[in-house]
């Protein structure tokens, strides 16, 4: 995994590290205590309750669709997503953020949508670091983003510490079914990531990438 190759040695007596909250450490790619910090645990629990509510929310009936209800359901259903991502219902609608359940993430508020977004069934985003999704990004079923990881160092893992690294996906990129994206990584604009790929390194703009680990198979003419 790309992320475990980015371990940065940190001294236990580093005063600047001691002054940081666990969330600050998490967002800076430093070792942090994910399970022992109450604020992080409570944030994750909040996200889990919202995900359960969204994943179990009923779909509109045919009669409701005929009466004009949007296919993604009433505002009450969209409000759950808005609460999860720290957005408003109007923002969810105007940006056309459409997520098929079930959907799972760690926090939700570390995911940024730069425009429209469609996500098919079974997506998992471990957003312990910032995850940025460009305008027009499409996810096929079973896409998983791992911005969370553990160190190669056994002592660090035994101490219960984790690390997190950001993921960015550029505008108009299509991510195929079953793709795994492992931070830190940036996928460029206009890319297609072939089904089943494991992305561990940056992918330049307008590329078709596939394989394990993913590599550029050919360039795509910009459009």
Automatic annotation (TrEMBL):
| Source organism superkingdom | Eukaryota
Q: Which residues cross the membrane?
A: none
Protein name, per record: Maltose/galactoside acetyltransferase domain-containing protein
Q: A Gene Ontology molecular-function term? A: O-acyltransferase activity
Domain Maltose/galactoside acetyltransferase residues, every copy: 23-90
Could you tell me the keywords of this UniProt record?
Answer: Transferase
What's the family? Belongs to the transferase hexapeptide repeat family.
Report the InterPro entries cross-referenced here: Hexapep, Hexapeptide_acetyltransf, Mac_dom, Trimer_LpxA-like_sf
Q: What is the lineage of its organism?
A: Eukaryota, Fungi, Dikarya, Basidiomycota, Pucciniomycotina
């Amino acid at each position: 995994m790309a992320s475990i190759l980015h371990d940065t040695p940190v001294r236990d007596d580093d005063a600047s590290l001691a002054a940081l909250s666990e969330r600050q450490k998490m967002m800076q790619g430093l070792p942090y205590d994910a399970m022992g910090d109450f604020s992080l645990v409570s944030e994750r629990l909040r996200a889990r309750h919202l995900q359960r509510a969204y994943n179990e929310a009923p779909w509109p009936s045919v009669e409701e669709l005929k009466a004009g209800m949007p296919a993604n359901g009433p505002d009450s259903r969209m409000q759950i997503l808005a609460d999860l991502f720290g957005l408003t219902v109007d923002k969810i609608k105007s940006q056309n953020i459409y997520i098929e359940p079930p959907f799972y993430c760690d926090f939700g508020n570390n995911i940024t949508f730069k425009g429209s977004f469609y996500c098919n069934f079974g997506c998992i985003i471990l957003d312990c670091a910032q995850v940025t999704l460009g305008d027009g990004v499409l996810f096929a079923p079973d896409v998983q983003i791992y911005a969370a990881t553990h160190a190669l160092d056994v002592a660090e893992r035994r101490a219960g510490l984790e690390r997190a690294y950001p993921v960015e996906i550029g505008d108009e990129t299509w991510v195929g079914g079953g793709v795994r994206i492992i931070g830190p990584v940036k996928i460029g604009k206009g890319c297609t990531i072939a089904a089943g790929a494991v992305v561990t390194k940056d992918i330049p703009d307008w590329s078709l990438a596939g394989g394990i680990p993913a590599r550029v198979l050919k360039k795509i003419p910009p459009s």
